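seq:
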Amino acid sequence: MPNLITIQEAVNNFKALIEGSILQGGIEAKEAMIRSSKPINSIHEAVKSAMINAGVERHRVYPPLGASSPEMKLAGFLKHKHQDVCIAPKGRTPVHEIMQEGLLQEEADHYGKEYTERVLSINVRSQMSSLAKNFDTLYERTIAEAQNLHVRCPKMVLGEVYMIAVKEYNPVAMKNKDIEFIDRVGAVQKYIKSFQAINGRADFTKQDYKYEKVCLLIVDFGQTPAKIYSTNEELIEDGLMPANSQANIVELNWNSFTPSILETYNERFN
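struct:
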């Protein structure tokens, strides 16, 4: 039976896979490792583990702990999409339906709307470089994923675990199979404020672009073990956020994620 892992173990494993590939084959090997999804799958495993530790039965977790398939492919208003981590609803059976609305009208939904709405779905993403440069595209995509499912299934409980690296691996050093870091930390406050804006969808009749719960994992891979930031004080002390900032990482940190999203699910579906 696969072992449960903590988020610290997951980010350490992420770091080890990335850096091991750099030492072995430089920047090309690092890019190949990212494309393999092995590093981000470590974060998937931490999400699954947290759910199981909180009392969710293992057989309800998709993909199963220790596996990357099968994923649940859910139908929203705009498209079908494989979900990163799902908790299947208790006491419900999928019902094959032909969809009657949206861009998927007349296409098959193998789960059915009632079942889909009771699935707890969590996206897992990461951004390791160019935090500021790629922000708009990534943020728009994040919002679109929530809207796709919430427009069709308003009561659906959605989570987002988004990891950003506060220090980038130096591409020049990687070409020589060396590990160095570039201190580019200017976008951290922007990420916190932006994810605060789509966190905590309490009223399922509106704000379909928001998630019921967001976790923003802010990680310094330049430290060993990798450092996960959980408080404003830590961010300010390390120069990642100004002391007078109105941003607040506490409501987005890992420790609050699982209890909050499960509480929302239980309130919504008893």
